[in-house]
Amino acid sequence: MSTQASDLARRLAERAELVCRRYLSNGRRVGRYWVVGDARNAPGRSMFVRLRPRNGGKGAAGKWTDYVAAKIMLRLGAEALSHSRLAISTQHNVVLREVV
Fold this sequence. Notes:
Blueprint: H1 3-14, H2 16-23, E1 28-30, E2 33-36, E3 47-50, E4 64-66, H3 67-99
Antiparallel strand pairs: 1-2, 2-3, 3-4
């Protein structure tokens, strides 16, 4: 990351709550996090933005997680896995029929 980008990221993290209040105004503070629906400022509780790091632990301020996006990715992965199992099963049955 360039020096300018690193500096900007650091300064935004130092002011994470101010940035959230301005750009994610439909959210609210809950403990060490700002909770909002999504990055488009929808109301809700899916996206969490860390406002300050844990005491003596990992996790930078400003880091965010959107749990709906994670659930969608898990569902898509499960569907893909299910589809690939179906394809393997179908291929297996075709091979068995050819052998028999």
